[in-house]
Amino acid sequence: MNFNTYPDTEMMAIDVANVIADDLAEALHQKDRVVLAVPGGTTPGPIFDVLSAVDLDWDRVDVVLTDERWVPEDHDRSNSALVKARLLTNRAVAARYLPLYAPAQAPEAVLAELESVIAGALPLDVALLGMGADMHTASLFPGSDGLEDALAADAPILIPVRREDLPDIRITLSARVLDGAMRKHILIKGADKREALNAAQNLKATEAPVKAVCSGADVHWTE
Questions:
Q1: CA distance 67 to 40
Q2: Angular region, 216: left φ>0, alpha ψ -120 to 50, beta rest
Q3: Quick check: 44 and 71 in contact, CB under 8 A?
Q4: 35 neighbors 84 (Cβ within 8 angstroms)
Q5: What's the pLDDT band for 167 if we cut at 50, 70, 90?
Q6: Average pLDDT of the chain, as a whole number
Q7: pLDDT of 41 above 90
Q8: Rama region for 90: left / alpha / beta (φ>0; ψ in -120 to 50; rest)
Q9: Is the Cβ–Cβ distance between 20 and 54 less than 8 Å?
Q10: Are the CB atoms for 83 and 98 separated by under 8 Å?
């Protein structure tokens, strides 16, 4: 891992957005289309604000979430709504969005359909990842149903994730897909997250799922 420290959130957002833009521009020189994977949540919002205004060939960029709650896009817990409001705007409105949700009672009913759209865009060119204090990343949660499948070397593209304390079913890109990104950026804030990421290096991926994507990643941290 390459560790980058920033004095505040604003500086981190500007720098990370510029780094991702450079990664995408480099990939666009080599391929007709590129794919960017991004997390939901509030932490990446300022990065999206900066990145959305960057002058890129956005019409050649696919954007996919690292994970999503199994709720409609107009639900207040939908990650899609945040990404469309903060990233897929300004110049980036031209990018193509690859959804992780389709109307169905359970993800298993439409998993093949969702995977078929994403499969043609892989491997990921750039992945921006978050991490929780429990050392989860995307929706790879310790103790969740589906975690071992998601961590397997031959894992499918998408994995449904369930845990009793989670209010919604989750759908997540598997560790294989996330770790296969050409460039990986892990975004964390606070001393507790920094300590958790360091601790994860001495644990199994089943205990600290973020470990499965740490190799070769650039970590961006601020208090």
A1: 7
A2: left
A3: no
A4: no
A5: very high
A6: 97
A7: no
A8: left
A9: no
A10: no
